[in-house]
Amino acid sequence: MRKIIFLLLIFLAFAKGNAQILDPAKWTTKIEKKSENTYVLTFNAVIEKDWHMYSQFTPDGGPLALEVIFKNQRGNFNLVGKAKESKTTTAFNDVFGVNETYFHDKAQIQQQVTITNPKLTTIEVDLNYQVCKEACINLEKKFTFVIPSPSKTAVDASKNAAAVIDTVKSDSTVVKTEVEKATVIPAKVSIPDANPVSKRGLWSIFFIAFFSGFAALLTPCVFPMIPMTVSFFTKQSKSRAKGIKNALIYGVSIILIYVVLGFLVTWIFGAGALNALSTNVWFNVIFFLLLIVFAFSFLGAFEIMLPQSWANKVDSQADRGGIVGILFMALALAIVSFSCTGPIVGTLLVEAASKGGIAPIIGMFGFSLALALPFMLFAMFPGWLHSLPKSGGWLNTVKVVLGFLELALAFKFLSNADLVLQLHLLEREVFLAIWIAIFGVLAFYLFGKITLPHDSPLPHISVGRLSFGLVVLMFTIYLIPGLWGAPLKLINAFPPPMEYSESPMGFGASEVTESAAVLPDGAKSGPHGLVVFDDYEKGLAYAKTVNKPIMLDFTGYACVNCRKMENNVWSDARVLSQLKNEVVLISLYVDDKRELPKEEQSVSKTTGAEITTTGDKWTDFMISKYKTNTQPLYVLTDLQGKSLNEDKPTISYVGVEEYASWLKTGISKFKK
């Protein structure tokens, strides 16, 4: 009995020592024959609670996107389109400044392939992906699909499905696990298009579109149409009830026209493809040029008009009467007002398309609802028409303001393209300078200091215009400190991130100047002006010369929680002081894809994986030394590499109090 208990304790101790090697996603696979030479490969994952895995459609500049890599594709098979995904969630990540797309609870990836080599027997696939909760893990799984023999039935094929060698790899370093079975299931599994946006994202699109519809109402192309159209219905109808009914039909027709437009955009391009396009360089450049054209149209350089023949044909149909005639009247409004509504609708479609899913439909519904409501309400309560302000120069002012907003938004799309290419042509300071110029000129326009082609004479400015001008001027002044490193939290979703700037730590910051002047060999300036090494050996050598403990920071370029710790915890005065003065900071990036020199490449003694990149090297170091594969991971060691905090050798995603206390305890022990 004692022996059994002793063996059980040893087993539990061993299990505890290895429990930190995390694998929150459990995969199963299957292969299905669709036609003579076409097969569907399906990957199903069950994701542990509170963890999420990033989609292949997560844009560049954010967390690591999922990659589906076909190892033996060349000369053997062709891919039919891009791998499809099951339901995902899209939400804005304020750390990286991008809309990240991810799975939670479960995920399914499907890829259709066409076999071109009749002798092919297996398809080799690697999945590279990142999963995060309080820590992030970069993983790789390898799968082997055995192609069923053409002469066998689906049942026979399922009996002979190949074993899939499933290995877990943390940033290219493999940790061996059990073998999983691939099964062949005859029934076709359908999954929705990739990347429907989250409910919160759809509500945001709806409200933005709704207020944009109200803005369109206040343009010179639409506003004068309200009393004219409502008067037509009330006078031409035999009774007030009939007039109200016709106005309601007219409003519903407006909504129907724009919703159909949103549906066509979604249907033609595909819900998932729209989101993928949002990160495409050329499409961002095209959107930038498109919005520039819209902006100059609103500013009065020219008018975007649909062919007059369209308006004439539609107008002739409006005389038919009945529901069909009212529908054509609504269509006539859309065509006639296109020079004002077109740029707004185009901008909304571009923005909604970048969200993917049914966002274009939701956007057009919100826009058209705002556009249609006044026609319906004034028909029900015609007495309200007398309270409407008269048409005048103020309508053109609204149009010009929208032009400036279009111009500012255009540079967001150009910034996206620049970030993806990492050209550093539109860094944070340049972007903010452009916005300061745009909104500064808008403020001067609202104060009457600048006039544009279609403006009416302005003997004085109204209180409303003055008030709005002051708001714009305050916003412009608010932007100016951003040129010197202010975070500008009100607009953090728009400009490039702080690190994508000429002065990542802030222009003229004394801490940066001092650290830059005394940087030791192998070090660089890091967050908050900290001196950081990204090579362990160089950092250790420096620590020995200054006789300070080492703070190992296992991190990743695409690690969200690593950035949160740096921004929220390291920035605290108590923590920052210790990191600057009491330790030597070594940040080891486990997703560093720089290839190691041939003589430094090897096979891990711990995991048996190939170590070919710098990230592989640090990942293997983390797993072999600290038995974990999570980031962020912080370790405080002495000059012999021994952990100084015996009770808590490593620490991860924690708050300021715990982090500061952990640092203080380890540093105190080193000084004894």
Automatic annotation (TrEMBL):
Places the protein is found: Membrane
Transmembrane segments: 202-226, 247-269, 281-302, 323-345, 357-381, 393-410, 430-447, 468-486
Signal peptide region: 1-19
Domain Cytochrome C biogenesis protein transmembrane: 203-415
Matches recorded under Pfam families: DsbD_N, DsbD_TM, Thioredoxin_7
InterPro entries xrefs: Cyt_c_assmbl_TM_dom, DsbDN, Thioredoxin-like_sf
Bilayer topology: Multi-pass membrane protein
The Thiol:disulfide interchange protein DsbD N-terminal domain, residue ranges: 28-145
Keywords from the named record: Cytochrome c-type biogenesis, Membrane, Signal, Transmembrane, Transmembrane helix
Protein name listed in UniProt: Cytochrome c biogenesis protein CcdA
